What does this fold into?
Amino acid sequence: MAGHFEATPGGGAAVALDEVEIAILRSLAVQLLELIGPGDEPAEGADPLAALFAEGPSEPPSDPALARLFPEAYGDDDTELREASAEFRRFTENDLRTRKRDDALVVVRTLDALTPQPEGASRGDSGKGGRGEGGTAVLTLTADESRNWLGSLNDLRLTIGTRLEVSGEDGGEDGSLYRLPDSDPRKPMVMAYLWLGALQETLVETLMP
It folds into this structure.
């Protein structure tokens, strides 16, 4: 189980994480929440039902990472398509932001729920997960939490990939992001990008019938 998700009964998944990995995942999820931004709470005395029908922005975000998370629906080849994209964004972006925010919050909360497991105790004694020898914890997710995690892992990879300017044409040749020297300041982020990809891939496998 170390380093990759495995399926659990009931459609969930579990993965063993050490304390450094837990801290990295939590930090990345918190940064993602900050990037997405806080939810819009109804003003005091306002009708909460009205917030459900509030219109969102019509223009794409200026931040490239946010633009990747909230892309144009129909491209920008001509005026008609741009207008259709703006209309679609106005009525969908708020809901999409809420969903992405909820996914990231599940990541943070499930990581925070990990508690130390006394030596010799069974894994089930620690609830959502346990921390055994060497500070290793077993994170156990329900089926719904697995889907939240999958969404957030995808958002994190999109965000990091945009920041790194990852290209699908990168074949690992000299100068590739995947062959950076240890002295390159981008190296830790590239390693995180690849690690998140491995987690995402194994989590997808647990959700397949």
